[in-house]
Amino acid sequence: xxxxxxxxxxxxxxxxxxxxxxxxxxxxxxxxxxxxxxxxxxxxxxxxxxxxxxxxxxxxxxxxxxxxxxxxxxxxxxxxxxxxxxxxxxxxxxxxxxxxxxxxxxxxxxxxxxxxxxxxxxxxxxxxxxxxxxxxxxxxxxxxxxxxxxxxxxxxxxxxxxxxxxxxxxxxxxxxxxxxxxxxxxxxxxxxxxxxxxxxxxxxxxxxxxxxxxxxxxxxxxxxxxxxxxxxxxxxxxxxxxxxxxxxxxxxxxxxxxxxxxxxxxxxxxxxxxxxxxxxxxxxxxxxxxxxxxxxxxxxxxxxxxxxxxxxxxxxxxxxxxxxxxxxxxxxxxxxxxxxxxxxxxxxxxxxxxxxxxxxxxxxxxxxxxxxxxxxxxxxxxxx
Length: 384
Hints:
- 47% of the residues lie in helices and 14% in strands.
- By secondary structure, the chain is of the alpha+beta class.
- The chain folds into 3 domains: 7-91, Butyryl-Coa Dehydrogenase, subunit A, domain 1 (Orthogonal Bundle), CATH 1.10.540; 127-234, Beta Barrel (Butyryl-CoA Dehydrogenase, subunit A, domain 2); 250-379, Butyryl-CoA Dehydrogenase, subunit A, domain 3.
- Helix 1 runs parallel beside helix 4 and helix 9 (279-307) runs antiparallel to helix 10 (312-341).
């Protein structure tokens, strides 16, 4: 894992640092983790997305023809580390940028690409992803939302749940069953759905900490134009597993984010308590610091495999395991913070993180599913 940076990458780093220094304000940093209930912060971050897009910093890994910089793997690594350490807000359309845009780039029509991608990058349109259902969470292939062909339209009926920003979205990348007789993985299609379409009902979901970051979506005879199909009919599984081949350093955000959280925790402990003199607290902080360093090595192993043309198995396995480790570290860090600080501090940020951290081993693939993936696809173990 040799990450030596050539002069052009260091120039990229310097340019990014200068731009962040000139444009990233304390107010934006304070609002960098928006909630579904804070309209003012949401609008501020939408404006920030536009500022980044106009300056060419919103999607550096995207190809230039779609508004990106075509950044190399090392430039992507530098970008992720620098923006995370500077505490720059994540894009409001983070799911759209990382998951939906790649599918549009690969399978979308030219009109879809030129119309939808620039507005997504600027957060002019908010996107959500209709995957999870009450009986199909981590098992996407078990989804039951149906789409039936009717002339020049699909008619959609069903329900989605835990849809991030579903109540704010203008567009949804919706996965539906179009062939109920086919094997589970082969009867799914992907549609691009206008969320203002008649028959869509959205109900925000209130989570443990009182936020409304998620929503339930209900589809009642929703008519979706046939040309809104993304990818081949009954080929939704391959659309869902599309990855952005030029987004190969995103794993760096996992360890960089935890490093930032640990630094913030140490600062808050020093400000609000004398626990830094407690050997038990110091031991717990030290253990987390070591685990974050291990996470950094694990992430960089995945990035190195991509950088040097290593086997996809190594990159995929390391990234999957890193997500599991990241979630467990985040939960333990949150528990330590709450044990030491409780509800102290403005708006009790660590008490809030203690609650939201429960989702870290669920969202984006549960720890149990990730461990099965590692066991079967990396270690070659049998299913039973």
